[in-house]
Specification:
Layout lengths: L1 E3 L1 E2 L5 H6 L3 E21 L11 E16 L3 E5 L7 E7 L2 H10 L16 E16 L5 E9 L4 E4 L1 H4 L20 H6 L3 H35 L5 H23 L2 H20 L5 H13 L1
Parallel strand pairs: 1-5, 2-8, 6-9
Antiparallel strand pairs: 3-4, 3-7, 4-5, 4-6, 7-8
Length: 295
């Protein structure tokens, strides 16, 4: 059964005196807290065990009590007027503090995540109850339960108490440090389907290269078969042509027209000089005879 509960307070004294109640002392149940204020704080430097050690402080209200309560009630809902203030001091472990430091714990922009305001925090408590029954308009018996939490409203908890790490809820504000990844790590992290695709691509490339090589060989064989054979006569003609050209080239290497012209002119001058200096008249007679014969 689920009913609304009442917090024990002096104003209820007159009501309790007018009815017959049943009392339950040190009754074990579970308190549920909704956080209203969450922040990081530090132990004082005078702390003997953990000076200046960071911790998480959560303050809020007890929203309900659950358990095997009087009159078969399983849940006692508490409104804002009947709730009790609860404070939780969450102690970080060394591993959690190391994680928080890597996320930027001592940076001014490091913030408590909003997730802490939506969590349901539970703790075991001992309560005193005063209960009685009343009748509503339909004639049904309605239990009335008044509670009082005997335990301290401030508790120290850790990961072992809640079964989860509160440090994991904090987000990092530091830029990630990129480390050099070895080739072996890269290979080990490659998915299997990527390796299979690469192997298939290599196989397809090998098949394509083989087909290209075979096609090239076929084209070479076809070209060799279609090329006409050279006849002996054509071969001799080509050889003769090459030999004639070679002889002509050799003759041109030693033929110097300018030198021939100069030699011819020198011979004419020598003959002229000999003719003019001929006292015996022998050259004159020969020249005369040659002229007559030509005539």
């Amino acid at each position: 059964m689920k009913i609304n509960g009442l917090k024990s307070k002096p104003a209820l004294g007159s009501l309790l005196r007018s009815v017959q109640t049943e009392e339950y002392r040190d009754f074990s149940c579970t308190a549920h807290m909704q956080a209203e204020d969450v922040f990081l704080d530090y132990r004082p430097k005078t702390d003997e065990n953990y000076p200046n050690r960071p911790y998480l402080l959560l303050r809020g209200s007890c929203t309900k009590l659950t358990g095997n309560l009087p009159y078969d009630v399983s849940e006692l809902d508490l409104d804002s007027e009947n709730s009790s203030d609860i404070e939780i001091l969450y102690e970080f472990s060394d591993e959690e503090l190391s994680d928080l430091c890597s996320k930027g714990l001592f940076n001014k922009d490091f913030k408590v995540p909003d997730k802490f305001y939506s969590l349901d925090y539970t703790m075991d408590v001992n309560c005193d109850f005063e209960a009685f029954q009343t009748t509503n308009e339909k004639g049904e018996n309605i239990p009335i339960i008044i509670y009082h939490i005997n335990d301290s409203i401030s508790r120290e908890y850790s990961q072992n108490d809640f079964g989860e790490s509160f440090a994991e809820y904090f987000e990092s504000i530091n830029k990630p440090v990129h480390r050099q990844v070895s080739v072996q790590e890269q290979v080990e992290n490659v998915p299997d389907y990527v390796i299979e695709n690469e192997l298939q691509a290599d196989e397809n490339e090998m098949v394509a290269d083989e087909k290209t090589e075979n096609l090239y060989e076929d084209l070479q064989e076809q070209t060799y078969e279609e090329e006409p054979e050279e006849t002996l006569e054509e071969s001799n003609e080509d050889d003769y042509s090459l030999g004639a050209n070679k002889d002509f080239a050799e003759s041109q290497r030693y033929y110097k027209p300018e030198e021939d012209k100069e030699s011819h002119e020198e011979i004419q001058e020598e003959l002229s000089d000999d003719y003019n200096n001929d006292d015996s008249g022998i050259l004159s007679e020969e020249f005369s005879d040659d002229s007559e014969m030509e005539m």
